[in-house]
Amino acid sequence: MTEWGLWGAPEWAGAAIVLFAIGLAALLWSYGRAPWSLGWRAACAALKATGLAALALCLVEPLAGGVRPRPGANLFAVAVDNSQSMRVRDPGGGKTRGEELQQMLLAESRWQTRLGRQFDVRRFAIDHRLHDAKDFTGLDFAGEATGLVSGLGELERRFRGLPVGGVLLFTDGNSTDAFSESLDWSGVPPVYPVAVGAHDVLPDVCVESISVRQTNFETAPVTVHADIRSTGAGERDVQVRLLDEQSSTIDTKTVHVRAGSEVATARFQVRPEHAGVNVFYVTAAGGADEAVEANNTRGVVVDNGKGPFRVLYVSGRPNWDFKFLRRALADDDQLELVGLIRIANREPKFTFRRRGEGSGNQLFDGFNRDDEDTAERYDEPVLTRIGTRDEQELRDGFPKSADELYAYDAIVLDDVEAEFFSPDQLAMIEGFVSRRGGGLLMAGGGGSFAEGGYRLTPVGGLLPVYLERDAADRRAAGGSGFRLVLTREGWLQDWVRLRKTQDEEQARLGGMPAFQTSNAVGNLKPGAVELARVADASGAAHPALVAQRFGRGRSAALLVADVWRWGLRRAEVDNDDLEKSWRQTIRWLVADVPRPVEVEVDAAPDGQTSAHAQLIKVRVHDAEYLPLENATLQVTVRTPDGRQVKLSAEADDEEAGLYVAQHHSRTPGPHRVSVEAAGPDGSPLGGCEGGWVAEPLADEFRRLRVNRPLLEDIAARTGGQVVELDELDGFVAGLEQRKMPVTETWINPLWHHPAFFTFAIACLIGEWGLRRWKGLA
């Protein structure tokens, strides 16, 4: 930066002014008497006055000074994108982006020579990480990723505390990592991205992104969404296929990509063939003139069930509902049904003429139960257990401790009154939903809801409806029955519907039998959603199915008391709709239930590690589903080439029960991770599985156009600017005018320059020449 107005001999200012004033007075007197026109006199006087002023300034020694970067004292980084996206050939059949860039990176280029004179230049190459480079002759543009943000973060750490003038970043901006909140952009030196490549590209079709949504809809519980981008080809139809891990085609769709949007979505619904980790691929067909083929396919991991999930069914009496529910879940390998059914109440309901000796219930006489301590007592209800794992499970009835109850994932209460449970057991059920994250379904009947005495209990508090004080069951008038209809919210829930289309679902609802009884309740609680209702012949409607989130879990109220009527018509309608409805409902109950050991795989935070790193997060709970510290984990990753990699997981400093491991792999394909956990005492806690699909080249070629918005964002965050390739020479030449960490002051006396005297003499000669040209004296 140059500053003017400096004087080397200010003590001569008075003499200079006096001499100039004398000369100016003489000049005015002389031209005032001249017999010329006013215009010519003014022009000649101005030239001579300017020359005299320049000579007078020489007495005070005028100086030009300023501040400039000290040559060689500041660092300047030159970073070049060495990824495969630089192999893209822009339209016109010319050079690739890398070939065009290599011409600009020659050591003898003008901008590098000038930059080297002003700064201490450090050279780097960026692909999946930052590399030192002696020069740029060895660039091969073979990197499988472009870690621009992580590379800039590494530069910031390397140069921290050093005087850095800036960073020239040669790239097309197609980064495979994103902005990281952990990167302090205020510490990054000014970045000057140099955009490499044309805006227009050759025609290309790519699978830009893929996502999975898992539902409880039995026919197709997994929905795969794939965003298809068509670049440079205008409006077109693209054939998209869904493949399994063996590359067998599952389904094919044709999507229409409009010229204006360039993006269309292909939607597939599929039912995975086996439980556990499944891998699916979506591939889009490009044309013969396809610019890049590496971005035509993407994969995704689907975890089809973390079960088996255990469901505890508690009923106050034998009924048809348990029969249909048990039949519905019999063939589902993800669900295990355990029944606890009361077949007789305390003795007041079964009065015997002769009790005999002892306290044992005479219903069990003759069954070789002579042990007084284990025999069913006459003053206790008679319970039967169905589907238990061993003789000890539920031997004493409903669980009496949290760790015993929390071994289940969902509870179904069917026509069993609140008095069946102790106050501690009622509180445990509330904790089962709110803290453990389990699911609770209360089915209708005379022993349910307000009629069952739940209004002022913890269980009544977690239900999605308010219980009225004197509520009684509603019975259909005139024998016409209640017809079931879905609400707007019910139509939106996959687990409530049983058919794929609205017309088919309407027909199914119209063919359902009429129900005769429904439990009466009050209003819905805040946050609860009414999914179905029943209406009688007069049009009066009442809630039939209501659900809500409660704490970490969820609860639902099935208010129809005679759902079993639906199952009795199976022979007439020849379908298994009731069993399907039960399966979908139970799957909804257990959909988000935490497991003792859970694994989650995410991309590692950008700016902290390489672009190929995956963060494996494992959460471990104890028997009461509290976060467990001091657990021992065995984390094994199986790579696509069959290798097994053992990882160590470290406890997270911020979240109790969370353990974190990192895996770095550049091998493309599906990766599977398995976790086995043990408690502090060595007791096994269980295991889980997860996985991800590594696709470095699909990420690298996700977009082909130059990503100018990203480059402008980086420049704005760091105080730099985007530089065009053909403006590089002028930009480097102007760097000495920019603010730099290490600078020096320079001063240059103007009167030492020949140009200064040349100017003064030119003004005097010009005045003389003008007079002679006009023939003036």
Automatic annotation (TrEMBL):
Putative glutamine amidotransferase domain boundaries: 393-590
Keyword vocabulary terms for this entry: Membrane, Transmembrane, Transmembrane helix
Listed InterPro entries: Class_I_gatase-like (IPR029062), GATase1-like (IPR010768), Ig-like_fold (IPR013783)
Transmembrane segment boundaries: 12-31, 43-64
Protein's recorded name: Putative glutamine amidotransferase domain-containing protein
Organism whose genome encodes this protein: Pirellulimonas nuda
